[in-house]
Amino acid sequence: MLPIYDIEDQVLAAFGGELARVVIEAPTGSGKSTQVPQMLLDAGLAGEGQIVVLQPRRLAARVLANRVAEEREERTGQSVGYEVRFERCVSKSTRIRYITEGVLLRAMLDDPQLSHISVILFDEFHERHLYGDLSLAMVKQLQQSSRADLKVGVMSATLQSELLNDYLAPCVEVKSEGRMFPVEMEYLPKAPRADLWDEAAAVWQDCARQGVEGDVLIFMPGGYEIDRTLRAIENCKESRDWELHALHAELPPERQDAALKSYDRQKVIVSTNVAETSLTIDGVRTVIDAGLARQARFDPNRGFDALTIDKISHASAEQRKGRAGRTAPGRCIRLWTEADHRSRPGTTAPEIKRVDLAEVLLTLHGLGVDDPKSFDWVEPPLEKSLNRAEHLLSDLGAIAGQQAGSGLTPVGEKMLKFPVHPRFSRMLIEAGQRKCVQPVAIIAALCQGRPLMIRKVDKRVVERRDDVLGEEDLSDFFRELRAFEYVRNKKFHVPMCRELGIHIATARQVERLAVRLVRQADSAGLTIQDTSVSEADIRKCILVGFADQVARCKDGGTLRCDLVHRRRGEIERGSLVRDATFVVAAEITEVEKSKGDLDVLLRRLTAIDSSWLKEIFPDECVVEDQMVFDEFTKRIEAKSVTVFRQLIIEHSGVVDPDPSRAAQLLAEQVIAGKLKLKHWIEAVDQWIVRLNCLAEWYPEAELAPIDAEAKQSLMEQICYGAFSYKQIRERKVMPVVKSWLSEPQQALIDQMVPERYRTPDGRNLKLRYQVGKPPVLAAKIQNLYGMEQHPTLVNRSVPVVLEILAPNFRPIQVTQDLPNFWKDTYHKIKPELARRYPKHEWR
Question: In Å, how far are 33, 36, 643 from 175, measured between CA atoms?
Answer without folding.
Answer: 14, 13, 60
